[in-house]
Amino acid sequence: MSDHPQHYYPSPALSLSLAGIFRRDDGASNAEVVEAGEEASGGGERRDNTTTTVHEISSENSGLIGRSSRSDDGLFDEEAEPEGGDDVEGDDGDNNKKNKKKRKRYHRHTAEQIREMEALFKESPHPDEKQRQQLSQQLGLAPRQVKFWFQNRRTQIKAIQERHENLLLKSEIDKLREENEALRGIINKSCCPNCGVPTISSSDASIPPEEHQLRVENVKLKSEIEKLRKAVGKGPQGMTTASPSSSSLGNEQGMENRSCMEIYSGIFGLQKTRIMELVNKAMEELIKMATIQEPLWVRSVETGRQILNYDEYVKEFNVELSSSSSKRYSIEASRETAVVFLDLPRILQIFLDVNQWKEMFPSLISKAAIVDVICSGEGANRDGTVQLMFSEVQMVTPMVGSREVYFVRYCKKLKEEEWAIVDVSIENVQDTIEASLLKCRKRPSGCIIQDTNNGHCKVTWVEHIECEKSTVHTMYRSIVKSGLAFGARRWLGTLQQQCQRLMFVMATNVPMKESVGVGTAAGRKSVMRLAQRMSKNFCHAVGASSLHTWSKYSGENGLDIRVSSRKNLSDRGEPLGLILCAVSCASLPLSPRLLVDFLRDEARRSQWQVTTGGEHVRSFVNLAKGKDRGNAVTIMEVKSKDESNCTWILQDSSTSTYESTVVYAPVDITRMQSVIAGCDSSDVPILPSGFSVIPDGLDAIRPLMITSSSSMHRGGEEGEEEEKNTEGGSLLTIAFQALVSTCPSDKLTHESLESVSSVMSCTLRNIKTSLQCDDS
């Protein structure tokens, strides 16, 4: 041992590296680095000859790999050559000469060297041996120096990242602690945050867990039912309810129907999972029903219609039929294909927006509502949308009852430029609902829409309905039981007609011959929108909707007339006061085309109309709204014989493959002039009357389906002989509306009923006389 006290000066760079980055497991004995330094004492210089153990430490794995270096401050320690060489032995064999004399020298990297190594570090934090060799030659450093600089730099970056992650974790812990405190506060309030049910406290420990669970479920169910009841009561999207302005004798029936919707909605709220299973299965069935040809569908030689082979249907889809169901319900199935003049996105939007859907089918839909939205869909076209809906479907006559149906609508993209929309009733998954509330069920029905990339779409429509058997007026029995009244042909024909109307309304390049009497595009749109509102109001007023109550009244010569009244208190779209609507129907041995051409011909109008008392009729506005010449909006001027009285009449004529309507109403001349100029027509009061013409269905009496037991699915009842095919005639519906009193509180009088009955009888008699038709 040396006589002089030994002074150890640890390396600043190495000590910092060891203390800040690495952790020694067994104290200073394994990794302690002691360096011999120089001590200045009294201006003299003394060198300590001590034995030091120097370990090189790698920053990558904290292993012992060599001498340590420090690069972040530009220092690098090197081993100095001992004085007198590596092995210096004295003759006296002194112990101090046995130890190797080693001395540390510190190399501080220049700013240029650090900059170059930083640049390479950004590109490659792990340079290979070749890169380190090139860099060492470029900077005048040893490869080992470069290697250690990169190791220490990586360690430094790693430490910074770990500190940053620690800060983030600490922040997350603080947030979790705050959330935990908030939840503790909620629990202490003894109230469930979701349902509002009091939680079980120590004082309520006597309540069994089963009872508490029932209480929670009860509150949830009440909340769901109340929410749906409010939605239905306030009128969900597109829901039409009886208002004071349009009240009639049918309020009780309307309330009954609304209560049915509430019951159905409340039960439905618990079945969303099963609903999704149902709509996917229904979509598969619709695609097959729309694409499979024979033997599933067979084309009739007599009528050209496609008839469902029900035996093949049962075999294909594994349908189970019960004898009780077959006795109570009749099944209608039909399929049609046509091209529609509207682009795909607009068609999808119409079907998913209940208001636009009602506007598209005014003669078919009297009421409709979205009760619940199970899935809102994705993308611009709302792929995957699932909606629970309610609708009331009608004919434009009070002689045939309307059909109420609850169903789920599912919109799905099949492939590029091809979509499908399926409707299916959900009573099969509603085990608790009363069957008496469901008079009509939709089996998978809907349409496949294919975009033809020219603004048109090819639509294949499938309508498959199971409807409760009921008594139908003799005049309409054939058309109803043939499946035409509510079948695919009527739906698709109406869609074609309305799409053409939309196209002509929005068009800006309509030829002058198709737009006579209106000089501006704004005026054209205003007139056509007024005509559309007039026709829609006519269809809703004449149909057998539950919003109306119809009474039977006998006119001249026993003419069967149905009358209904309503009070308009605030609707500015029609005159305010007490309104009387009278409807009568007749079967004529004329083709629908011939009859409609007669009714809309201005030159022959005076032959049947008795309310204007004029003989000179001239149309001065004629706006086409479809390719068929029967689809047009006209404004006529009717003058009396002495030209002392002049009346303007707005007329809207529509023709589809199933139904034709001629709707008209007298209009105020001053208001109509402003509409022609392009002003808003929404506040123009109008009270329409008119005609509806459909085929009598005698040429379509064939079995609705081919089956081994045709009596169950034939158009006629069991045991009823099939009528022979005859030349098709027409079913004419005449509707006349009049403002009985400007005071809504007034009552109907016998004189007003007699007056309306006389107009109806005279109009029908004039039509038969002009067309030389015998009474039938």
TrEMBL record:
Residues 102-161 bind DNA. Transmembrane segments: none annotated. Its main location: nucleus. Residues 159-186 form a coiled coil. Keywords: Coiled coil, DNA-binding, Homeobox, Nucleus, Transcription, Transcription regulation. The keyword Thylakoid does not apply. One of its GO terms (cellular component) is nucleus. Residues 98-108 have a biased composition (Basic residues). Residues 30-110, 231-253 are annotated as: Disordered. Residues 50-62, 238-253 have a biased composition (Polar residues). Residues 74-93 have a biased composition (Acidic residues). Pfam families: Homeodomain, PDF2_C, START. One of its GO terms (biological process) is cell differentiation. Residues 268-504 form the START domain. The keyword Transcription applies. It is found in: Nucleus. Residues 100-160 form the Homeobox domain. GO terms for molecular function: DNA binding; DNA-binding transcription factor activity, RNA polymerase II-specific; lipid binding. PROSITE patterns: HOMEOBOX_1 (PS00027), HOMEOBOX_2 (PS50071), START (PS50848). Belongs to the HD-ZIP homeobox family. Class IV subfamily. This is Uncharacterized protein.
